[in-house]
Amino acid sequence: MTTMTDTSPREFKMPDVGEGLTEAEILKWYVQPGDTVTDGQIVCEVETAKAAVELPIPYDGVVRALHFPEGTTVDVGTSIIAVDVAGGAAPAAEEAAPAQQAAEPEPVAKPEPAAKPVPAPAAKKPEGRKPVLVGYGVAESSTKRRPRKGVPAAAAPAEDTLYGASALQGAQSELNGHGQHGITVARPLAKPPVRKLAKDLGVDLATITPSGPDGIITREDVHAAVAPPAAPEPVTQAPTAPAAPAASAASVPAPAPVASYDGARETRVPIKGVRKATAAAMVGSAFTAPHVTEFVTVDVTRTMKLVEELKQDKELAGLRVNPLLLIAKALLVAIRRNPEINASWDEAAQEIVVKHYVNLGIAAATPRGLIVPNIKDAHAKTLPQLAESLGELVSTAKDGRTSPAAMQGGTVTITNVGVFGIDTGTPILNPGESAILAVGSIKLQPWVHKGKVKPRQVTTLALSFDHRLVDGELGSKVLADVAAILEQPKRLITWA
Q1: What residues are annotated to the active site?
Q2: Which of 115, 222, 483, 493 has the fewest beta carbons under 10 Å from its own?
Q3: What SS3 state is found at 364?
């Protein structure tokens, strides 16, 4: 008696890559039907409400079908890719021959010889079958890469067209850099966040001239591609405009330049991913926690001098040393002196939860929107350790590789609006936190110093806090402490 081998494909489902997330958008496929995959191989990149994450496949096999194209938002738990596991389909074929022999005395078995050519190649080499490895197939007849190129649609398995043959073939060409006839096509170089930005803005990367190193397309290149023409008054130029495109009028029967300018008046960007989650969180925070914001303008000339001195310190060689580093350290000292500011409001338990650790959040603008990763246990770090953590946090955020875990568990946040030349603002609390410090631009301004008006480096700080658990006195003390440290940075030592 023979046992039947299960030949059905393994379905890989969209996992919950965060904590309690319900959906994720497929940003990019790294495989296509017909490709071989191994346990742990990255098959796609998805974007959740918290971060972009690469998903590894948990088993070996051959990709049978991709269930959704790029750009599709899929619920957690929904199958996104089907894989024929290694040793799954072929063993069933190998068992076909003994089954036929046992059935030969029966009249119904006579037609079966006509079906033998299909399983025969696998049946001839049962001993030589090896596990599927990346880039290799289990048999020439069953795992050739991209078998559907040039094959009529009727010959392809139905599973490979789950979201349409044309859509699948288009996705395959884009993912693998191959044209319709298998000819290699030069694919524009860009990081995943830049590709996502271009996709949201409707920009074809192939039409962009890259300005980054090694021919890499940057965010600025994408934004420049959707920027309006340089001419400030296209209407006044209309009478002479036909002269410019005259040379290409025969090959490009396009409308007048004014029409093309009008066509770029609007760009609609879907609200999803990080931006959608941020919007919901900010609305929830603004209408849940009663916000109060206080301001102070402070002379930070001594802090700026200290920054320049620290840049020459051997202990900080190779680390990111800037005003934000000392501002972060000043806030940590202020929290140590006023620990009640580092707390959260537990509505269900009707309790104020004072945290005896500081996970310092740093608001970062990225191609995917505003995110707030945090430095775990920042209160316990030395200045060099804090500088190293800040550097890693910023570079990871700019590359679009901030993990969901890095954005969870924050207790207090700094947002540096000064990098945009802004004096100050009224920041909204990160959900679950009780305070956020906004740092304005540092400018040379006339300032009364030692009884005389002198040019000094000045900035404005703004502290927003949850008035349910932070009263005016506590908020004022914290802001005053930060300002005092930045005015006299030696307090980092005397108050520590």
Answers
A1: 467
A2: 493
A3: strand
